Structure formats: structure tokens, C-alpha cells
Amino acid sequence: MASMPDMSEHATRAARWRPAEIVFWLALLACGFLFPSRYLIMTEILRLGLFALSLDLILGYAGIVSLGHAAFFGVGAYSAGLIALHGFIPEPVLALIAAGLIAAVLGFFTSFLVIRGVDLTRLMVTLGIALLLEALAEKFSDITGGTDGLQGIVIQPIFGLFAFDIFGKVGFFYNLAVLFVLFLLARCIVHSPFGLSLRAIRNNPLRASAIGIPVNRRLIAIYTLAAFYAGVAGAVFTQTTALASLDVFSFERSADLMLVLVLGGTGYLYGGLIGAVVFKVLQDVFSSITPQYWMFWIGLVFVVVVMIGRERLHRWVMWLPHRVVQQFGRKASAAVSGGDAS
Amino acid sequence: MTIALETIGLNKQFGGLAVTQNLSLQIAAGARHALIGPNGAGKTTVINLLTGVLKPNSGCIRLEGNDITDLPVHRRVLQGLSRTFQINQLYPDLTPLETVGLAVSERLGHGGDWWRRMGTRGDVNDEIAENLARFHLLDVMNERTATLPYGKQRLLEIAVAIATKPRVLLLDEPAAGVPESERHDILAAVAALPREVTVLLIEHDMDLVFIFADRISVLVSGALLVEGSPDEVARDPRVKAVYLGEGADA
């Protein structure tokens, strides 16, 4: 017992910031200055990244699959739109938090339907809830504007200082700041005992409860938090585009999100962000090459990714990017060694 | 004699099939009690009832005098009733350090902490180190569990159960599937369990039962057939009949 190793050193190792992570965030920040003509697509990427981060929290960490994550995105988007339209909360950051909280409330109540049951049940329940909300938004058109969406949304300057400009510069940095803050929070959470217990539940729910983890309570908590994240993603969408229409609830949005996360990889937080970059860039490239049939090529890419497996694809095709991905966490390197073994 | 764990008239049916029948067991505090029985005797069901994975149709379960029949699995663990699994139930993606750390955190009430990193609490870290050292897992504590040799996984199975600081520990065939070369480590770990921990051993391996147990209950068709000291059980003609008669065509 004399040579007891320093446990805190070992236990906190996974949570340490890696150089590649710092480079990643600096690169995102630099993009804001390097490509002033591309704010719109870069903002879209950040927003999609935030939305995918939300799904990663439940799918990558807690193992909850969802095909209806747009439900929370949509509620956040409409909440932010209505808050701005009726001037309930003029300041956008506060409105953003309020919209996220409204989505979180919905997340909390629907979590009870989602935590029980197997993957197939969860897919159907989440899908159903999103479809239901879309239909409700269409039905109550006097509140939501129906198929026209919310009209005439005007977003006040952030903190009363930074007005949203026509080029999307403020929108980009606003998105980046929101993403970064929520990423830091997520990073803190996944390396905490709470976050670790989620991974334990995903790995083996039977054993998780057998060491005293209240499985259901943890799943409810993370599902509610993920709903908050998705709600915030929806709210920044409305705030930066001044739009909220029925497609915020659409099945395509939920399905794309799943693709983004699968593309980037689950369970190391950066998967959603990297997936969002790859997805949007692919979309951009394919639609400029073949405006009519870009969906075909994107579809093909996904089939290939899923059939070959992301890890193998990373090793074969994207050897270099994978070296970068690997730097972000032990999770990624574990996936590589797992792939080698099989 | 104080009773650590007790079942009173426990019944469990799956459809029309009675898998546990009017089972009343008393496990004395500090005992090394073994529950044996031929295949299909309902041993696993008894464990699932005791740990709360299954709910009995009737009867009750008391842990140190408190009725725990209706408590969910994790609450029983926090009250001091833990188990190991016959087939390893670990977290393939987590390291032994993380696995044991979780169990310790939950017990000390820090399991829900989301604002601080794992490994920043001294009391938790000390217990993790002590536990991993005791089960010879320090050298592999940063490896993914899935990559550990089977014997090490088996040790981790016991280590994580002990990390919950049980007062009653259910050991479900601890040496099952362990190669002969690694068997000694497991048996030593079982033998070294603290005396104040009450142990209920569910076991097929008769050698292990007779080395380890000071009291044996024999379960047949979900009901208690015989209970007594190892000598009494070994001499009992009904036990011989069950093991020689039914064991032959099982």
C-alpha cells in the first residue's frame, strides 16, 4: 500500500483538455474572421452542431435513440419566435434561456414515455411526439401562424448592444458563443460522476442499478437537459433567421440529425460538431455539382458510412482527420482499438 | 443470533409455473451461507427476488429487520445489499477505476454530482485506491474493461460489489468460467471478504461450497429441501438422491 498511485491524477485524466480541442475551438473562432462571406452556412453548421450535441448527450452517453428530436428544436424555435413577437422578453439571451426551459419542460414530461422500453419503442415514441407537435402547430394557426409560420419576428440587440446584421456576423458569433458555453457545460457534465453514470447505464443498465445508480432518475435528468439544448438550438435558429415555420418539427430534421451524429461519431461530444461540418460541406459541395440530385449523393455517402462503419471509414478514407478526432478523447481511440480487434 | 437477511413465505410464479414456493430463509449476520440446488431449482430467481429485479407474488424480504420487498434495485444496494453476477455484468467501455469510482460515488451520495469532475473528491479517491489495491486491479485500472483478461474481470465483478460496502453480499457462482490458473485469485478474494459482511453464496461447485460455507440451504423445485451445517447436508439422504438421481439425467 506504500506506493499508492495518485488517484485524482488518473481519475481526472479523461477530463483534461487536449491541444487538439483548443485548436478546434480557435479554428472555429478564426473562421468568423477568415470567411466573412460565408456567415450563413457557418452559422447553420454551428446550430446543427449544437443540435447534434443535444442528441449526443442522450444517444452517445445514455444510449437513448430518438427519431423525434426536432420536437424540442421546434418548441424552442416557436417559443423564441412568440417571445420576440409579443415582446415578452425583449433581450435575446434571456429569451433564449426561456425558450430552452420551455423545451426542457416538454422533455421532462415526455421522458417518462421514453425511458421505459427498448430502442424500437423509443424510436416510435419520439417520432410520434414530434409528428404530434407538428400537427398541433398547424392546427393552432392563430398562435403559430399555421403553414405560413410566424410572421414579422424582430429580434432586439443582444444585451441591448449587438444588433443582428444583414450579413449574419453577429448571428455567427452569437451562435458560436452559445455553442461554446453549452459545450463547456456538457463537457463538465460528461466527466462528472453523473455523466459517468450515464455511460454505465448505456453499457449495462442491469449492473448500473446493482451498484446503486437510480437509472430512471438519471435518464429523466439527461433527457430533460438534452431537450433544453435542442430547445436552445431551435431558439437560436429563430433568433438568427427571424423565422419559425412548421418544418422546425419535420421528420427530416430529426433524421438528418441522426445522420450528422452517426457521421461524426457518438459519445465524445465533438462527433456532433464534426458531423455537422462534414454534413453541411457535403451538402454544399454536392448541391453545387448537381443541384437536382445532391440528395442521391448524400444518401450514398450515408449508406457507405453505415455499411462500412464509421471507424473503418475514418481509418481508410479519412486517415488524417481521424488522427485529429483521436486527439479529442479516449473514446475515439477506444473505438479504433475495438475496430482492430474485430 | 441476529438475522441479516430473511425471506418469509416467498412465492413467485411465471404464468402457471411456481418457481419459488413458500421460501423462508434466514441468513445470520456474519454467516457464510451457501444456497445450492440442481439446475432449474430456481436459484437465479431467488437472487432476482432478493435484489429486486423481480417482485414476488407474495411473501416478504427483510434486510436487517427492515422490509425491503417493495424497494427498487438501487435502493436495496444503498441499504447494504449487493450482488455479483454469474455472468460478468460490467461496463465494457469503462475502466476499472471508473467502475469502482461510480459505485463509491453513489454510496457516498455524490453520484448525481454533475458540476465536478470524477476524481476531485479525496474521500472517493482514497476508497477507489484501497479497493483496487485489494483486488489486484491497480495495474489495469486505466484499461477498458472489455480488454481485461477474464480473471481480472471476475475480480472486478467482486471489487465493484464490495465498493458498495454491502453488509450482505450475494455471490452468484463467483468462480464460474474462470480458468484453473486464475481460480486461486478468485478464491482468495472470496476468502478474504471481511468477516462482518454476511455472504450468501449461490454455487454449483461443491468443492467451493464445502470449503467456504458454514451453513447450507438446498433448493429443489423452488422450495427449501434441507438446511443445515455442511456435514448435515452432506449426510442427508434426500440431498444425495437429488444430486445423484436428478443430476444424472440433467
Overview of this protein structure:
The complex is a heterodimer of chains A (342) and B (250). Chain A is mainly alpha-helical. Chain A has a domain of 234 residues. Chain A has 17 helices and no strands. In chain A, helix 3 packs across helix 12. The longest helix of chain A has 27 residues. The radius of gyration of chain A is 20 Å and the shape is globular. The C terminus of chain A is likely disordered. With 250 residues, chain B is of the alpha/beta class. Chain B has a domain of 172 residues: Rossmann fold, CATH 3.40.50. Chain B is built from nine helices and ten strands. In chain B, the strands form two sheets. Chain B has a six-stranded mixed sheet with strand order 6-7-8-3-9-10, sandwiched between helices. Chain B has a four-stranded antiparallel sheet with strand order 2-1-4-5, covered by helices on one side. In chain B, a hairpin with a 2-residue loop joins strand 9 and strand 10. In chain B, helix 3 packs across helix 4, helix 4 packs across helix 5 and helix 5 runs parallel beside helix 6. The longest helix of chain B is centred in the middle third of the chain and has 14 residues. The N and C termini of chain B lie far apart (38 Å). The mean pLDDT of chain B is 91. Chains A and B meet through helix 1, helix 9, helix 10, helix 11 and helix 17 of A and helix 2, helix 3, helix 4 and helix 5 of B.
